[in-house]
Prior knowledge:
Structural class: alpha/beta
Region (Disordered): 508-530
Helix content: 40-55%
Number of strands: 18
Strand order of the largest sheet: 9-16-15-12-13-14-17
Radius of gyration: 22 Å
Largest sheet: 7 strands, mixed
Distance between the termini: 32 Å
Strand content: 15-25%
Shape: globular
Amino acid sequence: xxxxxxxxxxxxxxxxxxxxxxxxxxxxxxxxxxxxxxxxxxxxxxxxxxxxxxxxxxxxxxxxxxxxxxxxxxxxxxxxxxxxxxxxxxxxxxxxxxxxxxxxxxxxxxxxxxxxxxxxxxxxxxxxxxxxxxxxxxxxxxxxxxxxxxxxxxxxxxxxxxxxxxxxxxxxxxxxxxxxxxxxxxxxxxxxxxxxxxxxxxxxxxxxxxxxxxxxxxxxxxxxxxxxxxxxxxxxxxxxxxxxxxxxxxxxxxxxxxxxxxxxxxxxxxxxxxxxxxxxxxxxxxxxxxxxxxxxxxxxxxxxxxxxxxxxxxxxxxxxxxxxxxxxxxxxxxxxxxxxxxxxxxxxxxxxxxxxxxxxxxxxxxxxxxxxxxxxxxxxxxxxxxxxxxxxxxxxxxxxxxxxxxxxxxxxxxxxxxxxxxxxxxxxxxxxxxxxxxxxxxxxxxxxxxxxxxxxxxxxxxxxxxxxxxxxxxxxxxxxxxxxxxxxxxxxxxxxxxxxxxxxxxxxxxxxxxxxxxxxxxxxxxxxxx
Length: 530
């Protein structure tokens, strides 16, 4: 699963601080607890994978090439979403889920649609506020406005579950007028401003940074810049607030097809790249507004692709430091990691049900893992001491999960390792330490004459060696943003990183994936908003 960042985003809006912690009787005599964002857990996250338009990058490319719709790839996409969802439940302290996903996302619905152990586990997770429905404007987790037959059936099943479970639901405010204003400013305005600002983000080498994240070849950067400028001009001249569906209709989906069908048009230039960008922007608005973490799945753009170059002044995350301090923390202070060296046979998450994950969360191993994760995220400067602790505890948690699951037909080897990424100016440096040695890879090239910007260091607990990805594909992977750092001269910083890694005896290798590791992502402020 992917946590965008373990750095908690900053509070942007001032919401009502009133919280009715008593149970509220709502529609059909449903009882639930009212929460506001301040009541959420410190490491609460919002999972992008449950977005009903999310598609992993490799599948998106095939859909466009072969003219496939979301319906055509339903089974393949469901398997990926289900794995990412279970990883989110296992790795996150608390998961905030759009109420609509409880009635339109099969990866969630399958756990409570029929009586059985999975349904009971789902009820416990709701009762314990591990799963927290987010209400945009609804006043109850139960709403009778289902639009089609599938959602009508799921709505009935959800209503029956809600009648049996005293869950907790979160809104930006329980005062309707305040909530409407908060939703508008925190979600709608933020997304609109991102789309309208795409041209400005292309200046001073920003187009090359977009290309690096989106996998666009260097010779196509001018065309990408022109297309993003065209999108920005369209948004500026739009006669109302721009929503994601508007961008889809104009620039992504086949002419005349509903955006919900997911039939992406190869004739529309850079349709795949635009979809990835607007999906990322769309899915970061809610965690930003809640002041919690976006949890990004594998095979998706990293938050750095949004090119937000300034830390919010009220951010609770680690303060922006200089590049030398960032390198001190992750390279120069490290002497040796005490790594759990044994290769563990762990079950693929796709072979498990929610009951297995819920039982794992109830163990001492899960509590120890949670505490280690919080400790590392809170003290990124102590990466050299704390990353190994997190790696060992995560390995013990997976070992316990394997015991809970019992014999599995698809056990995969988890070669527990620890590492970090440095992400700056379109450059990605991946460093990994395993019991048998350490290596690093570099992807991307700093754009010439790039202005000062902000990079991000990122902790990664990896289950595969230099040439394997079985553990990752099985769903076992952990990543979290550590600390933003100032980048004044990207090319010089990359030279310094290579020099420091060589001095530490870490070899550079080729190949591998330049994809950003999914996980918990820190919130930075848009350059244009400064």
